[in-house]
TrEMBL record:
Pfam families named in the record: Ribosomal_L10 (PF00466)
Gene3D superfamilies: 3.30.70.1730, 6.10.250.290
Function: Forms part of the ribosomal stalk, playing a central role in the interaction of the ribosome with GTP-bound translation factors.
Gene assigned in the entry: rplJ
Species in which this protein is naturally found: Nitrospirillum iridis
Keywords noted in UniProt: Ribonucleoprotein, Ribosomal protein, RNA-binding, rRNA-binding
SUPFAM superfamilies with a match to the protein in the record: Ribosomal protein L10-like
Protein name per Swiss-Prot or TrEMBL: Large ribosomal subunit protein uL10
């Protein structure tokens, strides 16, 4: 990799890290190309990205972002997973780490907060933004359907009373 390629890589990584809210630093020594490709597909499907990085270039790219404190985590064979959704990358990384012994979570960061592997695991157990939106929408819609039911009930009761009087009148 020559100097211009390194600068382009650093600039692209810096831009990506500036636009994300979560970074998960991983160690994936001994993984095959097929395993890494599978992990990338899963990350992409969840709205996250996975990139194998050179430690020196990643440290330079971290400067000027909210993740500068993660500098110490880049030792050995590392890769990063990042997403704008605060839990997407963590969910996929933790799920994949449970199925593949070659893939380990080192730590990460959410905003300016540095997280260890336990913090990333706790974050992965939270619902995603889409799940939260669905729950919120359900909570908003439930009272509306209850109100509609309550408003329709008196009209229905009046109709039943009138129907009963009509049947009573017919019977007489």
């Amino acid at each position: 990799m020559d100097r211009t390629e390194k600068q382009a890589t650093i600039a692209a990584l810096h831009q990506a890290l500036s636009a994300t809210s979560l970074v998960v630093v991983t160690r994936q020594s001994g993984m095959t190309v097929a395993e890494v490709t599978d992990l990338r597909r899963k990350m992409r499907a969840a709205g996250a990205s996975f990139k194998v990085t050179k430690n020196r270039l990643a440290r330079i790219a971290l400067k000027g972002t909210q993740f500068e404190k993660l500098d110490d985590l880049f030792v050995g064979v590392t890769a990063i997973a990042y997403s704008s959704d605060p839990v997407a990358a963590a969910k996929v990384a933790i799920a994949y780490a449970k199925t593949n012994d070659k893939f380990k979570i080192i730590g990460g960061g959410m905003g300016s907060v540095v997280l260890d592997d336990k913090g990333i695991e706790a974050l992965s157990k939270l619902p995603s933004i889409d799940e939260l939106r669905g729950r919120l929408l359900g909570m908003i819609q439930t009272p509306a359907t209850r109100i509609a039911g309550v408003l329709q009930a008196p009209g229905g009761q009046v109709a039943r009373v009138l129907s009963a009087y009509a049947k009573k009148g017919e019977a007489a």
